[in-house]
Design goal:
four-stranded antiparallel sheet
Length: 124
């Protein structure tokens, strides 16, 4: 059983930056595809980015070029560097994991393990 804990959320003005972290514990000896998801006010949860165990990444069109996902498996931590933030980026950000070396898709229903989320608020 994998436990995920996010941190690093906060309030910033448009154009600012934040770096989210997600620490994993339990079952970390197995390979996992890791992803970031978000849910804005009145919106459905959407995939933001994923990274597989080989470092292959994929981004949602809305964040490509502004966000960078990375992982440090030695300390079981996932990151999301968010630059040039926009008000539309406001929402609860969740870290998620699914077993396996590869990710293939960014469908939330395929990710088994979830953190509690960290709030990101971007003001104009």
């Amino acid at each position: 059983q994998v436990q995920l804990v996010e941190s690093g959320g906060g309030s910033v003005q448009a154009g600012g930056s934040l770096r989210l972290s997600c620490e994993a514990s339990g079952g970390t000896y197995r390979p996992y595809c890791m992803g970031w998801f978000r849910q804005g006010p009145g919106k459905e949860r959407e995939g933001v980015a994923y990274i597989d165990t080989y470092g292959t990444t994929r981004y949602a069109v809305s964040v490509k070029g502004r966000f960078t996902i990375s992982r440090e498996d030695t300390n079981h931590t996932l990151y999301l560097q968010m630059d040039s933030l926009k008000p539309d980026d406001t929402g609860m950000y969740f870290c998620a994991a699914k077993s396996g070396d590869y990710c293939y898709t960014l469908y939330s229903r395929e990710f088994r393990y979830w953190g509690q989320g960290t709030q990101v608020t971007v003001s104009s």
